[in-house]
Amino acid sequence: MSEAAMPEYSAAPPMDTSRLAAARRFSRKDHFFHRLTQASALAVLGILVGVMVSLLIGAAPALGTFGFSFLWTESWNPVTEKFGALAPIYGTLVTSAIAMLIAVPIGIGIATFLTELCPPILRRPVGIAIELLAGVPSIIYGIWGLFVLAPILQRTVQPWLIEVFGQVPVLSSIFAGPPYGIGVLTAGLILAIMVLPFITSVTRDVFDAVPPMLKESAYGLGCTRREVMWKVVLPYARVGVTGGIMLALGRALGETMAVTFVIGNAHRISASILAPGTTISASIANEFTEAVEDIYTSSLISLGLILFIITFIVLALARYMLLRIERKTGG
Known about the structure:
The chain has 331 residues and is an all-alpha fold. It contains 12 helices and 2 strands; from the N terminus they run H-H-E-E-H-H-H-H-H-H-H-H-H-H. Helix content is 74%, strand content 1%.
């Protein structure tokens, strides 16, 4: 091939050094951001593991002394150094169950009213008022419950419950005993008021996220408001509603000061919800300063470990339920 027939190749354009330097800076910043977020996530896991390990170390003497019988023993006697967690576990579960039975339907009802029925001029003030309830310190709820709610219950509600259900099988045991005012029922009512803003706020937000076209289509088919809420809005928003309920349940399980004021702090199990009782967090708050013996302190730390495990199980079950719901809905 002759030189005249050979193709001519132009020289490669010089590389733009300013763009290359900018790309390298961007890469370094992106790498730093990635490492920072990764370290933050690992720090959360590290704190969680650290809390768990600390609780296990602190609870080891009590668990080594009493074994698994610590979980189903009702006795709590610091004098004889005989401790059992059954009464606090029972009180924690019962008060939380009462709170959720009261707060869930009321919270969903309030969210329904705010999204579907409330006049626009009242929607924002009522919503803000409900959200402000979440910012009230728990000790204020406890003081109010002890000095205002408990006397009202003692004079009115509890005597009425005893009179109405006194001759009904099973219910006569649940509502038995003198009206103390304070007790498991009072603690459950206080918890219901405290967790109500969480359920209402989350439920209202997920109801607002329902596409208007779905509701308009249901109304166009002749559905009533109740049918639209029950058959369209709730099924669409059930993942968010379930998440809000579980968030409220976690708050109810761990609440301390408000419950300590009104539950009566009695280490015993009673079939009546009108009787005094105790919870895990209330027992720890009441007795930790008095625990001078090692086994006493270790028993209280064991209660904290049990509460940690209960809360973890509840949140894990909540996550499992949400995954099942998402799979069924194809989300």
